[in-house]
Amino acid sequence: MKSSILAVIFLVVGTQFIWSQSHSTALEKEIMQLSKDKWQWMADKDVAKLEPLFHEKSRFVHMSGSWKKDRELEIIETGSIWYKNADIHDVVIEIFDATTVILWNRITLQAVVRGNEVTTEFTVTEVYKKQGDTWKLLDLTFSSVRDTHEIAH
Description:
Strand order of the largest sheet: 2-1-6-5-4-3
Strand content: over 45%
Structural class: alpha+beta
Number of strands: 6
Largest sheet: 6 strands, mixed
Distance between the termini: 38 Å
Oligomer: single chain
Radius of gyration: 19 Å
Shape: globular
C-alpha cells in the first residue's frame, strides 16, 4: 500500500516536472541557440546575418560607450572590435511573455579591440522581442565582472 502511494506521488511529481520543463524549454532552447548563433556571426564578422537580427532601434552598451545598430554593424564589419570567441559559462533566460525574453550570458570574451588582443569576463544582457515570426535583438549590454561572478538561477 505504501509503495503504491509513493509510486503515485512520484508519478504525479515527475509528470509535473517533465511538463514544466517541456513547456518552457522549446522557447528557451530557441533563444539560447539564437544567442549562440549571434556570437558566431559576430566572430565571423557576418553582418549580413546580424543586420536582420538587430532591431532598427537596438542599442549596444560596451565598456567604452553605447551606440545604435548601424555603428555596431560598422564596428563588427571593420573589425575595430573583433569578437573572436565568446566562451559561454552560464545562461539564464527569463521569459516575460510569448514575445519578450531577456537572456543573461556569463562569458569569457576573447577579442581584438583597436588592434589589441584582450580577454575579458562579462555578463552580457540580451533583450529579444518577437516581431511576426522572427526574433529581434533590442539590447546587448556588456557588464565587466570577475571570473567568480555567478548569475542567480
